[in-house]
Design brief:
five-stranded mixed beta sheet; alpha/beta; Nucleotidyltransferase, domain 5; about 110 residues
Length: about 110
């Protein structure tokens, strides 16, 4: 399974538009790749970058995605609603294993 984790430089999970890095973890060979995010500043552009990497799962928390990034990814990726903030903890605790096909709306809704 290939897991994408949108992170800042400290490798902490952040909203897609604040992700300076996309950490990709492969749980089959335990490899970790860190890619600079050319979509920094835009949730949709970051999601597009994530989808190009073809992960099975993306780690999310409330506020990580917006309705647009959720809609563009639906059906292409599963969502792991994680508790940890650091990429290393998400990986160590295997928080991606219970990934779902859909998220509750409050996870990606924008509060105005």
């Amino acid at each position: 399974m290939k897991v994408a984790i949108p992170c800042n430089k400290e490798k902490m999970l952040v909203p897609l538009d604040q992700a300076e890095l996309i950490v990709l973890y492969n749980d089959e060979d335990k490899s970790i790749v860190e890619n600079e995010n050319p979509g920094y500043g835009s949730k949709e552009a970051t999601m597009s970058m994530v989808l190009r990497e073809a992960p099975d799962v993306i780690a999310v928390k409330e506020g990580v995605m917006c309705p647009g990034s959720y809609m563009m990814s639906q059906g292409s990726i599963k969502y792991a609603l994680v508790k940890s903030d650091s990429a290393s903890d998400i990986i160590a605790n295997k928080e991606y294993e219970d990934a779902k096909e859909e998220l509750a709306e409050e996870i990606f809704a924008e509060n105005d």
